[in-house]
Write a structure and sequence with these properties.
It is a single chain. The chain is an alpha+beta fold. Helices cover 37% and strands 21% of the residues. It has one domain: Aminopeptidase (3-Layer(aba) Sandwich). The chain is built from 5 helices and 5 strands; from the N terminus they run αβααβββαβα. A hairpin with a 2-residue loop joins strand 2 and strand 3. Helix 2 crosses helix 3. It binds coenzyme A (COA).
């Protein structure tokens, strides 16, 4: 078992990843999404999920893109003018009885651009935005069987939160 000091150091190392993007993402910058990025975002999402959801992404852009209300962020990773990933999140106030907190509810990196720090960079950028918005905690939710996204978020220092999601199927 790790000693307390070793565990503390490991947590510090993981937290450092969330505040500084890795060096090997050379050429990738993060910025707010623009309307002209939507087709590339739709294509990345379709490559990952197998479903083209054009109307959904237009509505996400209206809510989280340009000129969205404070606390909402829709960021893309830009590699030489090409979108290679995106992340979306917002500050939610007092939901589930919890003080204002940043929520990340979507992240996707183009399969061709993975494992070079783009996801880390996107998460660092949205966390910087959350910090500027005054929150000190970030949460997300993921499918239990999505081990890839779980490995990613764990690598960034995120751990199980003190909440349990519940659901029920509604009878027609
Ligand atoms: C998860 C995802 C965002 C990671 O993006 P990425 O740019 O490849 O991530 P990074 O290069 O910054 O990786 C950071 C760390 O995550 C972990 N990680 C990333 N991909 C991994 C993989 N395939 N297997 C295991 N760990 C992985 C590693 O710890 C990695 O650090 P390391 O390279 O030093 O080992 C990307 O794989 C993705 O978009 N997956 C699909 C996401 C999805 O299902 N979205 C829908 C729900 S929102």
């Amino acid at each position: 078992m790790k000693s307390d000091a070793a565990a503390h150091k490991a947590t510090q190392r993981r937290s450092a990843r969330i505040s500084t993007a890795r060096a090997d993402t050379g050429g990738v910058t993060t910025r707010p999404a623009r309307r002209g990025d939507l087709e590339e975002v739709i294509a990345i999402d379709a490559a990952v999920t197998g479903i083209v959801k054009r109307d959904y992404w237009r509505s996400i852009y209206r809510r989280y893109g340009d000129g969205a209300q404070a606390g909402r962020q829709f960021l893309v990773a830009d590699l030489a003018g090409r979108v290679c990933g995106f992340i979306i999140g917002e500050v939610r106030d007092w939901e589930f009885g919890s003080p204002p907190c940043g929520w990340v509810f979507a992240i996707d990196v183009d399969p061709e651009a993975r494992l070079s720090g783009v996801g880390t960079r996107l998460l660092a950028a949205i966390c910087a935005g959350f910090r500027r918005a005054g929150v000190t905690r970030v949460r997300t939710m993921l499918a239990r069987d999505n081990t890839l996204i779980l490995s990613f978020f764990r690598s960034q220092g995120m751990m199980a939160a003190p909440f349990i999601p519940l659901e029920i199927a509604l009878e027609p």
